């Protein structure tokens, strides 16, 4: 395989991505926790923007590209361009934060427009480099390409949201363009990325890989098509349609959770306890919780027009918050942490994507002490994440706030754990 870039450059940009993305996640959660403890309206309002504008874009623009290029090396990685992407995403993050703080919606719209322009660059490169047959031939690449498409749509949502807030009486921008719809749309590309990753590095390597390919191909249509259909029935206010598709997706998640649990049991029995796989299992467990809370959310939101606030009966808002935070802190953050524990050590090991392409990135690349600390990190994130979800039900702001603070520092520990691992310090020269 021809290296997609030089060793020092690829190692350097992945380390930068790791540092910036983990800090953004930690800051977003910490700001949310402190917002609860201090009852600060700005902190509470801005913390989901930090997560989606910052991590949501970086994960697809950079990390998703490593996964796609590992399958098709002709999609070369340009470290200089990726550094520009990081800079522009951070600029957008500052713009949105200032817009929220000083109520400058046009600045929010400008950030969304800029991010749309950023996302168009890799999307154009992908569509002009890979043929449709190549994209559709690899199941995981279908997931990865649609991630970028959905991210473009999410940034369009940020742009139109800013315009709607600036000109609320224009009558042109649809009623469904709200903060909730922007956050919902931004979560989809992150979710789809994890699905593609699970197929590539778990089921695809199983003894029944042909069956796995057929099932994940079917799941692609159910998951991506189901999400699109779900958006339509939400806008139509079709209660039965929302319930039908949400139950279908939940049964699919249950099947994923069960089969991945079986995969892990066999893997741990024949290999070693890889902490990344445990993170992914925890993520799937929270996805199941997300789906269950989502069904309850639909039940209690019956008769409430999408885009209204609150989006659900006031006495049931804990369900809505549990649904969103199970997705963000549980499914997305835990899953991406697990993916990072697999992908980035593989890149640091050789300074290329070779190990992801033709080797086995699930090999024991990390030091034993690093893996043990990763399990401790996972335990802290699971406990604090569960405390956060339970706190929405009990109404304990103290537990909710401190749960967020603990979760933030547990997530930040990923930097200390990986940067001090021998494979990050010396690569293949360890």
TrEMBL record:
It comes from the Bacteria. The chain crosses the membrane at residues 12-34, 46-63, 84-104, 110-132, 144-163, 183-203, 215-236, 242-264, 276-300, 328-347, 374-392, 398-415. Keywords: Membrane, Transmembrane, Transmembrane helix. This is Uncharacterized protein.
